[in-house]
Amino acid sequence: MNFYLLESDQASITLLRDLIENDFDNTLVGLTADPNRAYEELLQLRVDIMIVSYQVPGMSGVEMIHRLQQVNNRPHFIMIGPSTSQAIKEEAYRAGCDFYLPLPLNRTETRSIIRQVATHVRLLNRVNQIYEIASSSIAPYNRPQSTQRRQMDHVDEVLRFLGIAAETGSKDIRKIIRVMIDQKITFSSLDYQRDFHISDHEKKITFQRIRRALRVGITNLATMCMDYPENDILLEYANNLFEYQNIHIEIQRLRNNEDVRRGQVSIQHFFDGLLQESSRGLNSVN
Q: Which of 207, 200, 247 is nearest to 223 (CA)?
């Protein structure tokens, strides 16, 4: 199990780190007291269980959980907090915590909870593996659901790679690409009134949010292309999602203090490319 620890109390950190690392089946992949750093690293790392303090500098642990859930990043959570507040415990469980550990931490209880949650996660992973096998061999009528889920998982990976998973427009991107995946249609075939129940004015506002997110994505990708100009994955994303000439223009803009006119962002090209890219999530599993 991969653990991540968001905590500022040194005594708690020492105890938790010792308990996690003394179990050969567990790995502590991240440790910080900074919630913003934790959020960024959770988007990049594979974390099975996050141990989070109820109160960290600048943000509550519950707020951190909600923030991760908004970008579909959902590890299992163990929360550490005051033992005197029943309201805090209820808030933690409502947010989706598996267990709430009261302070000060008891070594025996903490070890037991960590093992219970890790065992629970392992069992869920095995059940999911069995479901995948069954859905591909015994029950072919379940395949579309399983396929769609894997494609959406890969879409999330792409959005995180571009650094736009937390942008406001990313929610709109997910809604639209999910319909395209479900219906197996291109962007130009979407019917916004039928599929999303929105007016032309609402569609325009939605596209504005998406364009803002894609502007961030094209800048991030151009920056990566400057640092790693021969990376095949970056070149593939540049072509499939934004058309490489627009990435090239953005690179020139970044190098010339933004005097160069920005490249075009084609929403249609991005979504059709993202639909094609989502299919790679199937190839990576099979």
A: 247
- Model confidence at 142, pLDDT cuts 50, 70, 90, reads very low
Region 139-148: what's the mean pLDDT? Answer: 53
Sign of CA dihedral 193, 197, 203, 209: negative
Residue whose structure tokens are 């209880």: 109
Closest CA to 59 of 35, 28, 38, 77: 35
The length of the chain in residues reads: 286
The amino acid at 268: Q
CA 128/CA 285 separation, integer angstroms: 13
Amino acid code (one letter) for 229: P
* Cα–Cα distance, 274 to 268 (Å, whole number): 10
Structure tokens that stand for 152 in this block? 């959406």
pLDDT of residue 71: 77
What is the topology classification, in CATH, of domain 2-129? Rossmann fold (3.40.50)
For the stretch 150-161, pLDDT in tens is 888 889 989 998
Looking at residue 78, its pLDDT comes to 95
More confident call, 134 vs 80: 80
Each domain of the chain, given as residue ranges in start order, spans 2-129, 143-283
For 200, other C-beta atoms within 10 Å of its C-beta total 8
